[in-house]
Task: inverse folding
């Protein structure tokens, strides 16, 4: 996955799933030349948070490989994903045996494998309906826009175009394009400012839709223009609220700290997705900053900066 839409999809899934699981991208599969786009293992301690994540949380209820496609995948492309799934399960078994000090049996041995390792699910995310895939693996509808293959495959197919337009599906619909993305952005804008979806999606939309010079289609340009206009309006709203907050003596200190904390995390998210390393001392400085205007300035710089020194004031 090399273009910006694919990178956006992986980043959005990784950051969303990181709220409730240990999520990795570009997971190397040994004995294969492929990489898993996103691999998620649910955290039992964050079960309540996962339950509030809608459809993405449901899909992340078990160890899962997430494979988002920018175009509707062919049967051959999904077969490649199934190879990753099988190879990764084999690797997980090998790691489990190694950790337990168990001698690895011959492939033809009848002895049960110990310790047992759950077979990871495969979640294929498609913008359109992949008829050949659904037919080949006898996929049955589980809910609107979600199909389950025959049980032995442990494969789910999510068709973005068929998902209902609800908050529960929003993070997944942001992986679409054209009209689907435009509607998802509009739904994102309508959410409260402190919505968790905003904290995850906003910096990624700005970075991957606005921060590159890659050629785009006319339709993508239209969507990017809408996102740009929304972001500029959103930034103006944040400035106005910050000024109002400074004048309003009735606001509590806890509310201020909550807003600045979210703004600080947004700065760190932008730096991470742009590949800019943040040492522990700089991370602590960002998280400790309580001035909304300073955090806003750092956030705007982080979107276009090439280094951490270009973001933080006075950093040499």
Result:
């Amino acid at each position: 996955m090399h273009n910006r839409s694919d990178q956006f999809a992986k980043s959005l899934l990784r950051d969303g799933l990181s709220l409730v699981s240990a999520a990795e991208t570009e997971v190397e599969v040994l004995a294969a030349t492929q990489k898993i786009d996103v691999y998620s293992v649910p955290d039992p301690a964050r079960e309540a948070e996962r339950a509030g994540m809608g459809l993405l949380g449901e899909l992340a209820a078990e160890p899962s490989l997430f494979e988002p496609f920018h175009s509707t995948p062919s049967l051959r492309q999904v077969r490649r994903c199934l190879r990753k799934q099988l190879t990764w399960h084999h690797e997980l078994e090998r790691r489990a045996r190694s950790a337990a000090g168990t001698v690895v049996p011959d492939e033809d041995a009848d002895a049960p494998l110990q310790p047992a390792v759950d077979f990871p699910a495969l979640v294929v995310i498609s913008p359109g309906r992949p008829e050949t895939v659904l037919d080949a693996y006898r996929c049955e509808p589980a809910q609107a826009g979600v199909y389950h293959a025959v049980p032995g495959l442990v494969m789910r197919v999510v068709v973005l175009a068929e998902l209902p337009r609800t908050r529960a599906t929003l993070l997944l619909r942001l992986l679409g394009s054209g009209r689907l993305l435009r509607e998802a952005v509009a739904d994102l804008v309508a959410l409260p400012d402190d919505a968790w979806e905003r904290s995850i999606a906003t910096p990624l939309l700005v970075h991957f839709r606005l921060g590159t010079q890659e050629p785009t289609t006319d339709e993508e340009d239209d969507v990017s223009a809408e996102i740009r206009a929304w972001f500029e309006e959103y930034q103006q709203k944040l400035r106005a609220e910050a000024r109002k907050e400074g004048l309003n003596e009735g606001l509590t200190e806890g509310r201020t700290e909550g807003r600045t904390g979210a703004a600080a995390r947004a700065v760190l998210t932008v730096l991470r997705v742009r590949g800019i390393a943040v040492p522990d001392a700089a991370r602590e400085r960002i998280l400790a900053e309580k001035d909304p205007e300073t955090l806003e300035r750092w956030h705007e710089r982080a979107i276009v900066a090439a280094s951490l020194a270009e973001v933080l004031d006075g950093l040499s």
